[in-house]
User: Fold this.
Amino acid sequence: EIVLTQSPGTLALSPGERAILSCRASQSFSSNSLAWYQQKPGQPPRLLIYDVFIRPTGIPDRFSGSGSGTDFILTISMLEPEDFAVYFCHQYVSSPRTFGQGTKVEFK
Amino acid sequence: QVRLQQSGPGLVKPSETLSLTCSVSGGSIRGYYWSWSRQSPGKGLEWIGYVFYNGTTNENPSLKSRLTMSVDTSKRQFSLKLHSVTAADTAVYYCAAGNGWNDFWGQGILVTVSS
Assistant:
């Protein structure tokens, strides 16, 4: 099983700042099979990025994904008030598919 | 745009079977992997498994012995049954659709296992 470890656990920032979230895999990926989701309280996760760096239609371009091998990054270039939430990474390269434990982006 | 509507009981007794259904509107029932995940405060998001339109399944080994997943293409529904539940199965259960990643999610149902 591939374990995904996200860091930091909590990121305290202000609107307009840049957020950099890390997701490290316990095994190297053979393909770009990593996604990122945003979750707000009481809501299901929302897909932000898939295949490491692809944004679905409707996701703002301030969200970007990068990385390869075991290290992946989600960058939010300039935080908007609605971006304060929890973010999860998710690998679908092997079974069982797994999620990271989440990074909470909170107001500083 | 695929929409997923979940249904099922919010309370299940220990040792009984948890049964949830996800109804699909929009999109093709043949176009995605139909998956289930759950989320509890102690364990974060846990992938349960998926079922494809032809009935092929892929389950989390930690749950496989207690799990039944199925799809009914005529009703545009897919279902989850988790047998012999315990308090550790208390969680918010989500259905989702995607091609590996999950593009679309149901609203989630909190299922509490308690007598």
